[in-house]
């Protein structure tokens, strides 16, 4: 990824399940893609997930998306009812609920400038 061609640089932000993070990072490294991973927390489940920042030339975006797709499996999670006492009224629900998580939630962002100093 060159600094001169910064108008074609993209940033992929991918939120994935913790269990998929290791394999995804291995595969990105194997293919020489640079990535940073962060421990994050989902706003709805309030559970840990992992967020990847992957800077790349536009021409490699499809390949990276394929790697993410192949390494991040969608899962179903049943969440227990929440008490209105322990939680705010907005997030109160009185019955177990099935929630589908991921494979991955992905944002692709145009990068204005890419510098290494
Ligand atoms: P959470 O916010 O913990 O959400 C986990 C899963 O719960 C979501 O899976 C979705 O299926 C469900 N969910 C979220 N909000 C809900 C609601 N208000 N009612 C019913 N079900 C709800 P995913 O959509 O695969 O999202 C996985 C994680 O990706 C999220 O964890 C959050 O950390 C992130 N995420 C998803 N959409 C996002 C967005 N628009 N902006 C930023 N982060 C996002």
Explained architecture:
- The protein is α+β, with helices and mostly antiparallel strands and 117 residues long.
- The chain has a domain at 2-74 and 103-110: Alpha-Beta Plaits (2-Layer Sandwich), CATH 3.30.70.
- The two termini are 15 Å apart.
- The chain has two helices and six strands; from the N terminus they run βαββαβββ.
- Helix content is 21%, strand content 35%.
- A hairpin with a 6-residue loop joins β2 and β3.
- The longest helix is centred in the first third of the chain and has 13 residues, at 18-30.
- Bound molecules: ligand 2BA.
- Ligand 2BA binds next to β5.
- Residues 15, 42-45, 47, 49, 99-102, 105 line the site of ligand 2BA.
Jot down its keywords.
elongated; single chain; Alpha-Beta Plaits; four-stranded antiparallel beta sheet; alpha+beta; two-stranded antiparallel sheet; 117 residues; 35% strand; binds ligand 2BA
Q: How big is the Rg?
A: 17 Å
Query: Class by helix and strand content?
Result: alpha+beta
Major sheet details: 4 strands, antiparallel
Our estimate of the beta-strand percent is 35-45%
Q: In a few lines, what is going on in this structure?
A:
Helices cover 21% and strands 35% of the residues. The chain contains two helices and six strands.
Topology at a glance:
Blueprint: E1 9-16, H1 18-30, E2 36-41, E3 48-57, H2 61-71, E4 75-79, E5 97-101, E6 104-110
Antiparallel strand pairs: 1-3, 1-6, 2-3, 4-5
This protein binds ligand 2BA.
């Amino acid at each position: 990824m060159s600094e001169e061609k910064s108008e074609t640089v993209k940033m992929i932000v991918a939120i994935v399940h913790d269990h998929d993070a290791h394999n995804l990072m291995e595969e990105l490294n194997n293919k020489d893609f640079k990535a940073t991973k962060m421990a994050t927390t989902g706003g709805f489940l309030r559970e840990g997930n992992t967020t990847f920042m992957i800077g790349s030339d536009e021409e490699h975006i499809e390949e990276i998306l394929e790697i993410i797709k192949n390494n991040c499996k969608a899962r179903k999670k049943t969440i227990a009812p929440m008490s209105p006492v322990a939680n705010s009224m907005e997030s109160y629900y009185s019955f177990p609920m099935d929630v589908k998580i991921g494979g991955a939630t992905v944002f692709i962002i145009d990068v204005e400038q890419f510098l290494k100093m």
